[in-house]
Amino acid sequence: MKLPGIGEKTAIRLxxxxxxxxxxxxxQFANALLDVKSKLRQCEICGNIxxxxxxxxCADETRDQTKIMVVEESxxxxxxxxxxxxxxxxxxxxxxLSPMDGVGPExxxxxxxxxxxxxxxxxxxxxLALNSTPEGESTAMYLKKLIKPAGIKVSRLATGLxxxxxIEYASSLTLKRAVxxxxxx
Amino acid sequence: MKLPGIGEKTAIRLxxxxxxxxxxxxxQFANALLDVKSKLRQCEICGNIxxxxxxxxCADETRDQTKIMVVEESxxxxxxxxxxxxxxxxxxxxxxLSPMDGVGPExxxxxxxxxxxxxxxxxxxxxLALNSTPEGESTAMYLKKLIKPAGIKVSRLATGLxxxxxIEYASSLTLKRAVxxxxxx
Lengths: 185, 185
Hints:
The structure is a homodimer of 185-residue chains.
Chain A: H1 8-20, H2 23-39, E1 41-42, E2 49-50, H3 56-59, E3 67-71, H4 74-82, E4 89-92, H5 111-119, E5 125-128, H6 134-147, E6 153-156, H7 172-180, E7 183-184
């Protein structure tokens, strides 16, 4: 078994650390690992990883039910929850379209998004928060074609300068998009 | 004398390289250095570094005379010329307001911007392309207050995700701005 970012030396260090732990702690650790697999599942509505089903966000009626933000992975939900500025719902695709890697619409959590939009007719805007990679861009275009005809507004995150960043270190393409997407003050 | 990014070892390597050069090449190199100081000056209109006065961009009547992009430094002009997507004019401030460092409006190329806006009455938009640092932000607010009352549109570069970047690596504040500044597809 290989854990990401842990090479042979660290693995040996961790193994000796576990050897020195009291029996009880090791038991707890093992149980925690098993719990991850047994208790965590995908929310049946949004596809986010959750202990309860539907997840805490889908179940929360105080959230803005008119907006669904489409993200690639569960960890993106965590990132957007941290900004403390988005109060709508989410939908986790589980990846992006990538014909080269054999990922088509069937491999993604897409059908459930369409069903969801048909059921939850209070949704007025779908926000595409996909990575700004070629695959993310083409997935965004695909989703736009799928959703817009239903009369739902489709938007995407702004492309531009990062907060705190210097123009000097931005790529030409980012600068171009930042000029095109400029906002009035 | 210290050149940026050149430490003792590199300096010694460069010195020996110069020793090995033919007399003629060294003469040329020395002249080039002197030329930088003697021939380059600030454009009297936009403040950009230039050999001719006014500079090539200010003198070019085919450029869009309705837009002025305000940047901090001459190297920012180079960055925006490389995107091949902006055809308006520039104004180089020579820095940003920074009371902590004793840089007030008088220290910047600001008065000439105001004079310029009064003279060139075809200008309809001033684009603030300042770094997204605290000093850049407060300079942007200062300029907005100065220029907007004259009935000229003031805009700023989009803040958001860099092209090709992952949501995972963006700061919370950048994500927040990217959500706020989202654009319809």
